[in-house]
Amino acid sequence: MNKEHVADSTMSAAIDGVAALRSVVQRVNQAAEKAGRVSDRIRIVAVSKTKPVSLIRQVYEAGHKSFGENYVQEIIEKAPQLPEDIEWHFIGNLQSNKVKPLLSGVPNLVMVESVDDEKIANMLDRVVGNIGRKPLKVLVQVNTSGEESKFGVEPSGCVGLAKHVKEACSNLEFSGLMTIGMADYTSTPENFKLLAKCRSEVCKELGIPEEQCELSMGMSGDFELAIELGSTNVRIGSTIFGAREYPKK
Questions:
Q1: At the N or C end, where does the chain have fewer CB atoms within 10 A?
Q2: How far apart are the first and last CA of the chain?
Q3: Are 205 and 159 in contact (CB under 8 A)?
């Protein structure tokens, strides 16, 4: 494949990405209106895993600021090549040995959405303190589908973990809960309702108003349903950027 062809296909993908983003914004607005909610309380995180920097830049230049990545290696390679006012969300499973490279490599990381045990919370807390960056917002990831393949704390453990983050991790800001849903990425209403129930329990225990506690739920296949059931943060990948491009084995 020649360079011109690659450039043309990247350019057309970028135009498609910008059009797709506008379509997603419209669908979010409609879903919010249907649910009697204010759409500016719902954040769209454009999930750019496996996508090139050029494509992310095009979507950024169309006015979008919130982007999400699943892999530490990918986000630390991309973030320095892109504008500093992008608000990066890390949404993948995070291992302890990757915390320092992530936080050092991405100063404009605004949120880690996938805290699922005390060990990773403590590690994030320690590294944030050591590198002297401002407190980091985190979400506690809850496994609402009960699948063993899924990361996330059991629903029965979400209050305990949220409490630990809030009370024992002074460099972290507990900001809410996240769930992924089913294996095929379509969630049943039960997954979302369970996360909302967890939020009620957490807020009651911590004495914080529910509107200060985010619900990150809903992806390309089910974000309208998630908004109907209270999501404040939807994570949209393929609907904006097209299908994932994994390297051929």
A1: C
A2: 19
A3: yes
Which two three-digit tokens encode residue 205? 């225990």
pLDDT in tens, 94-146: 999 999 999 999 999 999 999 999 999 999 999 999 999 999 999 999 999 88
Q: Tokens 């491009």 sit at which residue?
A: 245
Q: How far apart are CA 174 and CA 93, in angstroms?
A: 18
What is the CB neighbour count within 10 angstroms for residue 173?
15
pLDDT for the residue 15: 60
Among candidate residues 177, 155, 176, 165, the one with its CA nearest the CA of residue 128: 165
- Residue in this structure with the two tokens 């498609």, named with its chain if needed: 16
Please state, in angstroms and rounded to a whole number, the distance separating the CA atoms of residues 180 and 186. Answer: 9
Residue numbers in the chain where pLDDT is lower than 70: 1-15, 182-187, 247-249
Tokens representing residue 87 in the block: 């608000």
Q: What angle do CA 123, 147, 234 make, to 5 degrees?
A: 65
* Tokens describing residue 219: 């992806």
A 10 A CB-CB count for 117 gives 16
Distance, in Å, from the CA atom of 32 to the CA atom of 227, rounded to the nearest integer, reads 6
Tokens of 194: 């369970």
Inter-residue contact 35 to 55 (CB < 8 Å) = no
The residues with which 67 forms a beta bridge, in sequence order, are 46, 88
How far is it, in rounded angstroms, from Cα 169 to Cα 237? 31
